[in-house]
Amino acid sequence: LSADALARESSELVKDTTPENVQASMAKANESLEAFEEAEASFAESSSLYPAADFAAFSDYIAKRKEALGHALASDEAILAKDKDAATEHNDAYNAADAEAADPSSPVVDAFEAEAEEFEKAYSTARLQAGAADAFIRDYLGTEIK
Fold first, then answer.
1. 105 dihedral zone (left: phi>0; alpha: psi -120 to 50; beta)
2. Quick check: 59 and 66 in contact, CB under 8 A?
3. 58 and 107 in contact (C-beta within 8 Å)?
4. Cβ neighbours of residue 111 under 8 Å, at least 6 residues apart?
5. How far is CA 58 from CA 45, 53, 98, 132, 144, in A?
6. Phi and psi (nearest 5°) for 40?
7. Which residues of 80-119 are buried (b: 16+ CB within 10 A; e: fewer)?
8. What's the pTM value of the predicted model, to 2 decimals?
9. pLDDT of 52-94, one tens digit each?
10. Coarse DSSP helix, strand, coil percentages of the chain, rounded to the nearest 5 percent
């Protein structure tokens, strides 16, 4: 989330295309790249700690965002070099890569729900069996339910 916020700040800065804003945008983009790399390492660690969760969507998302930021930086450099064609080309590539970076779902929640479903079914079956046994015993003993 931090990396995403930094990337959005970078994009906002360059909307007012002054040399100072372009430099500030590049600094934010580099901070964002570092944050995405930290996130990538954290997901790699999380994957080893909870193998049932599929973190591939996060890896794909981070890779696309890093690709987009590479184009953003190249666009900023082209702006500073006053190369409008290259800036436009890299900006278009940034937009395309950013659009392809689909928000990943929550793999931990998905894995937990899949594992919990099995236990919920077992609990429901045991509860029904206990209820049936209770009804049988009450009927046998002649006890009425109040």
1. beta
2. no
3. yes
4. 50, 52, 53, 54
5. 13, 11, 14, 47, 57
6. -60, -45
7. eeeeeeebeebbebbeebbeebeebeebeeebeeeeeeee
8. 0.68
9. 888 888 888 999 999 999 999 999 999 999 999 999 999 999 9
10. 85, 0, 15
Q: For residues 37 and 56, what is the distance between their CA atoms, to the nearest angstrom?
A: 15
The CA–CA distances, whole Å, from 140 to 104, 126, 131, 145 equal 56, 21, 14, 13
Chain-centroid distance of CA 44 in Å reads 13
What's at 36, amino acid-wise? Answer: F
The encoded tokens of residue 7 equal 């990337």
Token pair belonging to 53: 């969760």
Measure CA 56 to chain center. 10
Give the pair of three-digit tokens for residue 130.
């206990």
